[in-house]
Amino acid sequence: MGELPTNSVGVFLALLLCSCSLIELTRAQSPILEIYPKQEVQRKPVGKPLILTCRPTVPEPSLVADLQWKDNRNNTILPKPNYDPLYDSKGNRKKENGRNQAPMYTETLPGENLALMITSLSVEMGGKYYCTASYANTEILEKGVTIKTYVAITWTNAPENQYPTLGQDYVVMCEVKADPNPTIDWLRNGDPIRTTNDKYVVQTNGLLIRNVQESDEGIYTCRAAVIETGELLERTIRVEVFIQPEIVSLPTNLEAVEGKPFAANCTARGKPVPEISWIRDATQLNVATADRFQVNPQTGLVTISSVSQDDYGTYTCLAKNRAGVVDQKTKLNVLVRPQIYELYNVTGARTKEIAITCRAKGRPAPAITFRRWGTQEEYTNGQQDDDPRIILEPNFDEERGESTGTLRIANAERSDDGLYQCIARNKGADAYKTGHITVEFAPDFSHMKELPPVFSWEQRKANLSCLAMGIPNATIEWHWNGRKIKDLYDTNLKIVGTGPRSDLIVHPVTRQYYSGYKCIATNIHGTAEHDMQLKEARVPDFVSEAKPSQLTATTMTFDIRGPSTELGLPILAYSVQYKEALNPDWSTAYNRSWSPDSPYIVEGLRPQTEYSFRFAARNQVGLGNWGVNQQQSTPRRSAPEEPKPLHNPVQHDKEEPVVVSPYSDHFELRWGVPADNGEPIDRYQIKYCPGVKISGTWTELENSCNTVEVMETTSFEMTQLVGNTYYRIELKAHNAIGYSSPASIIMKTTRGIDVIQVAERQVFSSAAIVGIALGGVLLLLFVVDLLCCITVHMGVMATMCRKAKRSPSEIDDEAKLGSGQLVKEPPPSPLPLPPPVKLGGSPMSTPLDEKEPLRTPTGSIKQNSTIEFDGRFVHSRSGEIIGKNSAV
């Protein structure tokens, strides 16, 4: 072909350009519908809201009509209704948040856009949706979009805390829902779990762990992934191994005592700590809700404030935790304390059989025995070994919980009468009750056989008392000269009482009443008689003998023997009359009386004097005749009598009696005041020496005796003695005449006990510590100041020493030196001065000690010196006197 002309090419290009513009213009003017988002396939998760917007793209938007959405079933989706009824079809008012709402609806948006609203996307809503409209009533517009749904990863059963049980297989639950189906894998404590062994098995609903152990605890991770959607989600699960409860301590049988508190423990272990409850099997009641019961669910302790007999039965201890439940049964036996419900007093006759019966109840049936009141020895079952007359017969009824005990006494005696204690005993406790056995017997006067006769004198009334022992009480009658006294109607005989005691009051106005009387006692078992005598009493006869047994210068002791014949009444006292022998008048004699059981001592006599004595005895009737007249002389004044120590010695075999001191280091010596023999006692001399017995011979230790003298006292405490040592003690009394003969005793101290005293660690208080520290600081300052004074003549002590050595006149002269005045010798100071200081090592005596005139040692002659004052101190130098700053 030949080349086109240039003009032709231009025309072609122009035509091409016009064609393209026409095509573009035609295209721009074609009406269409657009859906946003623009993807033709929308993949959305189920359960999520969704909005699709349909927008008409037309030249004239006002020509668009019937814009609407159609669902996947080609049904027109209606717009959201503006009116929502307040009541449902049944006439019930709807809640504000419970009104029905369409799952999808359309809503017109600004700009003539129509939105499809899906509140919650479901699987059924997947499919093709269309947006349609008409344009200019001539053209139908339509645009489609496909919604594809998928299910996101959702944990349907995957608790974050799971608790397997020890020793069992357990599935760690992790159920996941997703569409498409997810893949599951597991991690433990961040590491992947290997399923190559039989320990772990991955299942559709979780991870199976075989034979769970405590080591399987940890943090497990369930990881779900959807490959198609790329979704990955993890679930952290905490696994804690629980242990089933186990009851470790519960007795098979429990025993409680009726009326007393009771406690029992049911111990269980497990993880978590099990909660324990007690169930009574008979009623299936949790006893924690019952009266008198308290249960601690943590410790398993059940307490009963007061046990009742109805609490008997079987109980179940229930231990429960999240891993399981375990129970164990126990039986509660209620011990019913014995109760004696029958014990009667019994009465029987002497020589007959007497039986006393005791009945008691309790659970178990109590054992019954008896014992005499006041003794601890109990009778044993059967015949008694020490008394075959007594037999104890027991009887038990376990089913009814009752017991009977009978104590039989054959051939009863009066000694069997008294109180008997019944004892009922079982495991619960003991019960006691006291009964009385009365042994009846005929009247008896054996207790009155030894009674003396009754005496009367001077027509005094006499009381003859008759007491008959007998059960039942006896009736008493009095007889005189064979006749009943009550039938005599004698006013001088009066009967008071008819039994068991009866008194016969006799008024012996004549001698005929001094005779015998008979008391007759009678009861249902017999009669007894007792003869009584009423005698006339007289004053005592002469004293048989009275002889002196001990004479002193001022006292006389007698031995008195009573009258040879007893005239009825006992001797009440012995009397003595005494006077000087030269005095013939007994009316001026001295009198003294003694009781029969006291020493007969006459005191206050004069030395070297002869006395006359006579003696008489006294009874209730009066004083007998004087007799046993005798004369005795007192000796001259002499040393006191031997003092008598007031100690009770102990004698072993044939050895000398020894007084044992209760102490090891001291002993109190006591003595009675002896007779002074005419001169008062002024002091006592006590000598005590330690010693030993060698071959039965007493040997005193040399230079170990102590001698002391005491004034006006009757006791002395010996101190600083040696333990387990014998001492011979001699005691003398002294008066103006001299010393008495010594009274000697042997005394032994007890064995000494060495007491070891543990030195307590002294604890200083804070104040004491501060004081010690302050004292140490002051002492240190004192030492430093002393060193400064000695070495450099400075410090507090040096200043005080200089001030002490300078008199007021010296101080005044120093002032004069400072002012230029002449230095003069100071006058003698009236103040006391210290002694001169030693010079050159030679001693100097004070003026009071001088024996020779004062001599000036060589080298101590006074030399010229120079004194300078610099305005603060005075300086002294030996040598020529050079007047500096001086007026001379």
From TrEMBL:
Keywords: Cell adhesion, Disulfide bond, Glycoprotein, Immunoglobulin domain, Membrane, Repeat, Signal, Transmembrane, Transmembrane helix
Compartments (UniProt record): Membrane
Biological process annotations from GO: cell adhesion; neuron projection morphogenesis
Coiled-coil parts of chain: none
Residue spans of biased composition, Polar residues class: 627-636
SUPFAM superfamilies: Fibronectin type III, Immunoglobulin
Membrane topology type: Single-pass membrane protein
Protein name: GM12701
Record keyword Transmembrane helix present: yes
One cellular-component annotation, GO: neuron projection
Source species of the chain: Drosophila sechellia
PANTHER family named among the record's database cross-references: CTX-RELATED TYPE I TRANSMEMBRANE PROTEIN, FASCILIN 2-LIKE PROTEIN
Domain Ig-like, residue spans: 31-146, 167-238, 245-333, 338-438, 443-535
Biased composition (Pro residues): 825-837
Residue span, Fibronectin type-III domain: 539-637, 653-753
Ranges where the record places region Disordered: 80-105, 626-654, 819-862
Top-level taxon of the source organism: Eukaryota
Membrane-spanning residues: 767-796
Signal peptide annotation: 1-28
Biased composition (Basic and acidic residues): 638-654
